[in-house]
């Protein structure tokens, strides 16, 4: 079978965003033995979208329409496809209930355009949106398969992996299941991952390996097809062992929707450890990352944002003259900040950040220079020097993840000792 992908969105034609969904879906289809021979990008215009669908029908067995399922006036994909195929749009009851619950929670009235997110072409199989509100759909008509998928990647990718791929496997009639395992790594780039795993990647058939770049980290998807989930897992286990033997020092967890912050919060809960932070470079971004995770309030009571040396000294009860002598961006200051935060917050462990985010050097210290300190009860403070590439935002983002990784490794070591 061959497929054609149609990405919908004027913002892609204007270069405002990149069509990452097309690349992601093409990879998944190739693992199923479905060739993606053509891809189109069209704006938010029903006439041009219908013309794109007609063109795809002339050369593809499967037609995927990516995006345009939302509630705004330019979200017209499902209406255009339904009109083209001569079918009505009907309501998916579970999706409508989810929409109503969301509207009630937001104290908003349910409007007609919002209801469109729960509609799908009559006769189609609904693809549940576990993350967002707009449902997807798969419709068989006249020997072709038509698929509607949402545009936001955070909704698109889970729907493809958890709803679409199993359905396509079943429709192929092979009696097989596909099982994927996602491994997450920090502190190593994609090119190095590919280099370290070059022989495994070159020899892959079943199971397969695929790398994906996430913000300042890398994920590796291992996928196996077999007659049962147990058989597929048996294929994945030795492959993961081979990967872990080479990349284990950078590994931190599993899952598409996992994160370093989530792993840290789980570790804090397991060890019953209270954490605090003192942030100069990152200006509270580390604490915000922790606060995004439900349940963190049991282990994180608050912290400090201390940019100026005077503020560091006042908030953390430190010797400002010592900080001035050592310099704001120094091993001494990183350790002192962590120790001060630990004492002032009465926590069990503290992380500190100080550095130069850029865009240029500061006091003779080059942009990207970052010290991350850690202090724990009954232990001497430590600090590590990092040199992060990229923009000001990238340096700060990498620093936050490096701090989370540092804390996670500390908690894991504590767990092993205890």
From TrEMBL:
<protein>
    <recommendedName>
        <fullName>Putative competence-damage inducible protein</fullName>
    </recommendedName>
</protein>
<dbReference type="InterPro" id="IPR041424">
    <property type="entry name" value="CinA_KH"/>
</dbReference>
<dbReference type="InterPro" id="IPR008135">
    <property type="entry name" value="Competence-induced_CinA"/>
</dbReference>
<dbReference type="InterPro" id="IPR050101">
    <property type="entry name" value="CinA"/>
</dbReference>
<dbReference type="InterPro" id="IPR036653">
    <property type="entry name" value="CinA-like_C"/>
</dbReference>
<dbReference type="Pfam" id="PF02464">
    <property type="entry name" value="CinA"/>
</dbReference>
<feature type="domain" description="MoaB/Mog">
    <location>
        <begin position="4"/>
        <end position="171"/>
    </location>
</feature>
<dbReference type="Pfam" id="PF00994">
    <property type="entry name" value="MoCF_biosynth"/>
</dbReference>
<dbReference type="InterPro" id="IPR001453">
    <property type="entry name" value="MoaB/Mog_dom"/>
</dbReference>
<dbReference type="InterPro" id="IPR008136">
    <property type="entry name" value="CinA_C"/>
</dbReference>
<comment type="similarity">
    <text>Belongs to the CinA family.</text>
</comment>
<dbReference type="Pfam" id="PF18146">
    <property type="entry name" value="CinA_KH"/>
</dbReference>
<dbReference type="InterPro" id="IPR036425">
    <property type="entry name" value="MoaB/Mog-like_dom_sf"/>
</dbReference>
């Amino acid at each position: 079978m061959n497929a054609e992908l149609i990405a919908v969105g004027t913002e892609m034609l204007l270069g405002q965003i990149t069509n990452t969904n097309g690349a992601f879906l093409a990879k998944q289809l190739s693992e199923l033995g479905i060739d993606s021979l053509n891809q189109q990008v069209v704006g938010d215009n029903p006439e041009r979208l219908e013309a794109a669908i007609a063109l795809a029908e002339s050369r593809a067995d499967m037609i995927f329409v990516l995006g345009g399922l939302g509630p705004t006036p330019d979200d017209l994909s499902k209406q255009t496809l339904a009109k083209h195929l001569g079918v009505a749009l009907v309501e998916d009851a579970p999706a409508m209930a989810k929409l109503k619950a969301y509207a009630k929670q937001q104290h908003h009235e349910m409007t007609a355009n919002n209801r469109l997110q729960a509609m799908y072409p009559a006769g189609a199989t609904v693809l549940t949106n576990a993350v967002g509100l707009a449902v997807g759909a798969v419709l068989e008509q006249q020997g072709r398969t038509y698929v509607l998928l949402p545009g936001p990647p955070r909704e698109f990718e889970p729907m493809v992996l958890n709803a679409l791929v199993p359905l396509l496997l079943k429709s192929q009639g092979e009696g097989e299941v596909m099982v994927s395992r996602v491994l997450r790594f920090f502190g190593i780039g994609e090119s190095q991952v590919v280099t370290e795993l070059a022989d495994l990647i070159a020899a892959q058939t079943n199971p397969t390996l695929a790398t994906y770049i996430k913000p300042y980290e890398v994920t590796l998807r291992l996928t196996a097809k077999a007659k049962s989930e147990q058989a597929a897992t048996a294929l994945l286990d030795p492959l993961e062992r081979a990967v872990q033997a080479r990349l284990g020092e950078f590994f931190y967890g599993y899952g598409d929707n996992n994160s370093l912050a989530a792993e840290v919060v789980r570790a804090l809960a397991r060890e019953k450890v209270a954490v605090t932070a003192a942030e100069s470079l990152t200006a509270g971004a580390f604490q915000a990352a922790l606060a995004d995770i439900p349940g963190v309030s049991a282990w994180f009571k608050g912290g400090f944002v201390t940019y100026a040396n005077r503020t560091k000294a006042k908030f953390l009860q430190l010797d400002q003259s010592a900080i001035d002598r050592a310099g704001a961006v120094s091993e001494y200051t990183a350790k002192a900040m962590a120790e001060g935060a630990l004492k002032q917050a009465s926590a069990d462990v503290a992380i500190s950040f100080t550095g130069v985010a850029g865009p240029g050097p500061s006091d003779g210290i080059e942009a990207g220079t970052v010290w991350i300190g850690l202090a724990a009860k009954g232990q001497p403070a430590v600090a590590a020097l990092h040199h992060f590439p990229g923009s000001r935002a990238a340096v700060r983002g990498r620093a936050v993840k490096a701090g989370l990784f540092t804390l996670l490794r500390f908690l894991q070591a504590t767990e092993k000792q205890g």
